[in-house]
From TrEMBL:
Keywords, sorted A to Z: DNA-binding
UniProt entry tagged with the keyword Metal-binding: no
Chain spans, region Disordered: 1-26
Protein's UniProt name: Regulatory protein TetR
Length: 210
């Protein structure tokens, strides 16, 4: 007689209820959101499904993060990464070579899981303006505002916008479109190649007077 296969185990869901003292509830929700958006994309994931995965009440998710778009913005940042601290460390190194250091840091963050988290981020971009605006607003506040303060001359907002457009383009090419050889190029070499272009946006002359 053919033997029947055992059923596939269900995805682990943490039991709801009060968390042990000292447990980082906000961090646990962010981690659950990261997993949920990576697996399902922005449209299919919900505050309720994130709460279920984290083992908390949906009201607690809203307490910490507000709406789904804000949860997406905070949740898709890879585990263990503090964007504000990363930006402070980059800026502390001075303007010279900042472009390459920025690329090296960004690639180190988003390459760490093979691009899975970045693809979750990108799925949110395709779901309308709300998630993309929430994420870019978050990154702008935490990262680019610090970079803009150390830039010389006029138009720091234009400069950091150009940097953001180039860096996001590299990540899309590497992790979403997976265009070779960029997709498999060593991160250090890619940072060395692209860094000087980003550096020009940061401190070089810009056509039109900046």
């Amino acid at each position: 007689m053919p033997t029947s296969r055992p059923p596939e185990p269900a995805a682990a869901v943490r039991p709801r209820g009060r968390r042990p003292a000292g447990e980082d509830t906000r961090g646990a929700i962010a981690a659950a959101a990261r997993e949920e958006f990576a697996e399902k994309g922005y449209e299919a994931a919900s505050v309720r499904s994130v709460a279920r995965r984290a083992g908390v009440d949906p009201a607690l998710v809203r307490h910490y993060f507000g709406d789904k778009a804000a949860l997406f913005a905070a949740g898709v940042i890879p585990r263990g990464v503090d964007p504000a601290q990363s930006a402070a460390d980059l800026v502390a190194g001075g303007l010279d070579g900042l472009g390459e250091r920025l690329l090296r840091t960004v690639l180190g963050v988003w390459d760490s899981d093979g691009g899975v988290t970045f693809r979750a981020v990108f799925s949110g971009f395709g779901s309308g303006e709300v998630p993309s605006q929430a994420l870019m607003g978050y990154v702008g506040r935490e990262v680019f505002s610090q970079v803009a303060r150390v830039l010389p001359g006029p138009d720091p907002a234009l400069r950091v916008s150009l940097v953001a457009s180039h860096v996001v383009g590299v990540l899309v090419t590497r992790h979403v479109l997976r265009v070779e050889p960029v997709a498999s190029l060593d991160a250090d070499r890619l940072a060395a190649l692209v860094g000087p272009v980003v550096q020009r946006y940061l401190d070089g002359p810009l056509p039109g007077g900046a």
